[in-house]
Amino acid sequence: MGGKTLTRADLAEAVYRKVGLSRTESAELVEAVLDEICEAIVRGETVKLSSFATFHVRDKNERIGRNPKTGEEVPILPRRVMTFKASNVLKSRILRTHQNSKDKAAK
Amino acid sequence: MIKSELVQIIATRNPHLFLRDVENIVSAIFDEITDALADGNRVELRGFGAFSVKNRPARTGRNPRTGDSVEVEEKWVPFFKTGKELRERLNAGK
């Protein structure tokens, strides 16, 4: 079970395997897909990828934070953050496989 | 933006591909991320963010309405951390 880190190269390899484009073009398309999602998010749009997840942009107000080391108060400026909400399909898939592998390990 | 709109944009920019191919490309990407997370792997996409799975140990929770205690089972949940570049782009020009 796991412990590996996948990167763009692994996604490009999956596209190459499943769609049958050249490796170069597969890599370019992975990049294009990620770019379009980024652009939409930066424009403030919500990106909904059904059966995967939703990316949302939220506006945060200014608040007073504290440097945990010195206890000093510092203002945290208003900013925009991106939130990720996994779909139920993704959540239950992860839960199921992790539970199964744990049950197997217990045997 | 929803998945079909994303597919449409990519298809318009790549007129040599069939719409069906673009649908398969987009599915292949997100299926691969899903499979990786299900296998307990991480997916790190520089400039975008990193997907991982977090373990939530079993705990005793409470029904907020009745105050009854309930045993909550151990869980594994998908987690995403926004990449540095995207975080900066979200706040550029402020």
Automatic annotation (TrEMBL), chain A:
Pfam families assigned to the protein according to its UniProt record, in alphabetical order: Bac_DNA_binding
Gene Ontology CC annotations of this record: cytosol
Keyword terms of this UniProt record: DNA recombination, DNA-binding, Transcription, Transcription regulation, Translation regulation
PROSITE patterns: HISTONE_LIKE
Molecular function via GO: DNA binding; structural constituent of chromatin
Listed InterPro entries: Hist_DNA-bd, Histone-like_DNA-bd_CS, IHF-like_DNA-bd_dom_sf, IHF_alpha
Keyword DNA-binding: yes
CDD domains noted in UniProt: IHF_A
Superkingdom of origin: Bacteria
HAMAP family attached to this UniProt entry: IHF_alpha
Assembly with partners or alone: Heterodimer of an alpha and a beta chain.
Family classification: Belongs to the bacterial histone-like protein family.
Its job: This protein is one of the two subunits of integration host factor, a specific DNA-binding protein that functions in genetic recombination as well as in transcriptional and translational control.
Protein name stated in the entry: Integration host factor subunit alpha
Species of provenance: Mesorhizobium zhangyense
Gene behind this protein: ihfA
From TrEMBL, chain B:
GO molecular function terms attached to this record: DNA binding; structural constituent of chromatin
Listed SMART domains: BHL
One Pfam family this sequence matches: Bac_DNA_binding
CC terms in the record's Gene Ontology section: chromosome; cytosol
Job description of the protein: This protein is one of the two subunits of integration host factor, a specific DNA-binding protein that functions in genetic recombination as well as in transcriptional and translational control.
Description of how the protein assembles with itself and partners: Heterodimer of an alpha and a beta chain.
Similarity comment: Belongs to the bacterial histone-like protein family.
Name the record gives this protein: Integration host factor subunit beta
Organism: Mesorhizobium zhangyense
Name of the gene this protein is made from: ihfB
